[in-house]
Amino acid sequence: MPELLGIECGATHTVTLHESAGQVVRAGFGPANLRLLNDTQLARHLRQIAKQFPKPSAVAIGMAGARTPADKLRLRRAATRAWPIATIHATNDLETALAADTQRKPANRVLVLSGTGSCCFGQSPDGATAKIGGWGHILGDKSSGYEIGLRALKACVFYLDRDGTWSTLGQRLLCRLQLNSPEQLIDWVAQADKAEVAGLAREVFAAWAKRDKIATDILDGATDILAKDACACAKKLAGKTRPVRFLLAGSVLLKQPKFAAGVANAIRARRPGSQVATLKSESCTGALNLARRLTKLPPAKPSASVSAHRSSIPVPGLAQLGQAPTEQRHPSSMKLDRMPLGQAVDLFLDEDSQLPAAIAREKNKIVRLTGWVRDAFQNGGRLFYCGAGTSGRLGVLDASECPPTFRVDPEQVQGIIAGGQTALYRSIEGAEDDPDAGAEAVRFRGVGKKDVFIGIAASGRTPFVWGGIWEANRSGAKTALLCFNPKLRIPRDNRPGVVIKPNLGPELLTGSTRLKSGTATKLILNMITTLAMAKSGKVIGNLMIDLDPSNTKLRDRAVRIVSQLTNATEGEAKIALEQTQWDVKKAATSLAKR
User: Fold this and answer.
1) For residues 195 and 217, what is the distance between their CA atoms, to the nearest angstrom?
2) Which listed residue (362, 432, 471, 507) is catalytic?
C-alpha cells in the first residue's frame, strides 16, 4: 500500500492526514495562506511537515489563497521540492473541502464556507467550477467570522455615538478583549489580525442566544448574504433548475448549528428542492481523498479510524499526573463546601504559611539557577519562562514587571504561554497538550546558548513545556523545570539542567494549581529575577536604581531614591531627574559630583 499525505492549510492552522498500511495519523501545524507567504516562508512551512512525514507516494495539498493557475503552480513547485519523489496535486482549500463530502454519487456541489473567511465554490462532476467570493477580508469575506466580528464592533460604536448608550454586546466585547473603554477599541482593532477579529464572532452568537437586537440584526444579514451567494454560485454552475447539493463548512457554520440551519432554510427558500447538508468530515479528509485519487485508490471510508500524531519529543507519561500531590485530595478540606468561612480562611492561611519551608528545601537548586540567570544577564543573554494556564500567566507576569522595575529591554525577560496572548485571559482548549508547539515557540523566539530557559508546570508533565525544554536543550541554552511533583520521573532524553520540585502537598481545592502552586511559583520567580538583577548592577543596597519612572507614583519613588542615595533634598533630586530624563542612576551620579 502506498503512503499518502493529505494537507489542508488555512488562516488559523494546517491539518495533515497521513495514511500508511491502513493507519491514518492526524497532525497539526501553523497557519498558511499562499498570499501571505513568500517563497522562503512557504518552503519552510512545507519542510516542517515533510520532517514528520518524509516519504509519501502521493501528496494532495489545499492551501488558502491559491486562487489562480499560477498560484497552484507555485504551490506545486514548492511541494515538489519538499517531496521530490511524490506525485503532487496542489489546489486551494475549497477543492479539498468539497472532496471531503461523504456522498460518493456524482452531483453538482456547492461549498458554502464561513469560517475566519468566507466563500462559495462549486464543482460539477465533469470538473467545471464556479466561485463567488474568496477575495480576502479587505475586499470580500461576506458573512465570515471576520465580518461578523467587525460588524459587531462597528455597530456598537455607531449606537454609542447616535444614542449615547453602550450596548450589552459592547460590554461582552470589552470583557473578551480585556479592555476598559470603547476608546481602547481604536488601538486594538488597528493592531488586530484577521483571526483576532473573527474570534469576536463567538460573542455575537452568545448575545444572539440571549436575543440581543444588534447581534440578531448582524446574523440575520449574514444568513441572507450566505444564501444569496450560495444560490448565485449554483446558478453559475448548474443553471436555474438542475439539482445541486449544498455543503455547509467552516468553523462558523459547523460550530453554530442554529445559524447553519437558518442558512440551509434560506437556501431552500431561494432554490426549492435543493439538498443542503453540513460537511461531516473535516476538510483535510478531502485532501487525503485527492491523494488517494492520484494513486487510483477509492476514497477513504468515513468511518476510517484516525489517530493523533505522536511527537518524538520525550514527555513524562500521563500516569504521572495522577500521582502528583496537586491531584490528591487534601484531608483537611474534604468538607470545604460546608466549612464556616472563618475556619476556611484559617485553613487557607495555614496552608500558605507552610510554603516557605517547602521552598527552602530546594534552596541550593534555586541558588544555582539564579546564578545562571545572573551570568546570562551579564553576558548579553536572556531569561525565558514557559508554561500553560496559571503557570504560563505567572511567567508572563514576572517578565512584564522587569522593564518598569529594572529599566531593561522587554526582550531580556520573556514569557511564553501555551495558546499565545489570548491564553492570558481566556482558556485555550488543548493548547498545553502539544509539545511540538512548545518547541516551535522556543525556536521562533530564537533561544540560544547565552540564554536560560525555565519551564513551569505544576504537575510536571505539561507537554507544551517539555517541547520547550527539548528545543532549548537542542539550542544549547541552560534549562530548568519548576514543578510541584516530587515523584516526577524525568525523561532520560530530555533532562533539564536543574529540576526544582518542592513538595507542597495537595491543594485545598483538588487540582486547582492556582492556589499553593501558583503562590509558590510567584515566590520563586520573584527571587530569581530580583536577585539576578540585583547582582547585575540594577540595585544599590535595597534601592531600585534603574526603575523606569513612567507614572506619578514611580516618579515620586525615584525622587526619594535619589535623595536617599545622595543626601540631596527632594527638590534637588527632582531637578536632577528632570535634567536626566528621569534616569535615576544618572541623576544620582550628577548629584554625587557636586
Assistant:
1) 22
2) 432
The catalytic residue among 401, 411, 440, 507 is 401
Q: How far is CA 312 from the centre of its chain?
A: 21
Q: Check: CATH 2.30.40.10 for 110-278?
A: no
Mean pLDDT of 295-315: 66
| Active-site residue flag, 327 | no
Q: Which fold has domain 541-592?
A: Helicase, Ruva Protein; domain 3 (1.10.8)
pLDDT tier at 330 (50, 70, 90 boundaries)?
very high
Taken as a whole, the chain contains a residue count of 594
Are 155 and 214 contacting, i.e. CB atoms less than 8 angstroms apart? yes
- DSSP assignments along 236-282, one per residue: HHHTTTS--EEEEESHHHHH-HHHHHHHHHHHHHHSTT-EEEE--S-
Helices 145-163/168-177 angle, 10° precision: 120
**Could you tell me the pTM of the whole model?**
0.74
Q: How is 336-348 classified by DSSP, letter by letter?
A: TTTS-HHHHHHHH
Calpha distance 453→471 (Å, rounded): 10
Mean pLDDT, residues 337-352 taken together: 96
Query: Which cell numbers in the block locate residue 383?
Result: 531569561
- Given a cut of 80, is residue 304 above it in pLDDT? no
440 is catalytic: no
Q: What is the pLDDT of residues 125-151, one digit of tens each?
A: 988 999 999 888 889 899 999 999 999
Q: How far apart are CA 497 and CA 476, in angstroms?
A: 11
CB atoms within 10 A of CB 143: 29
**Sequence ranges of the domains in the chain:** 4-100+282-308, 110-278, 319-538, 541-592
pLDDT of residue 307: 60
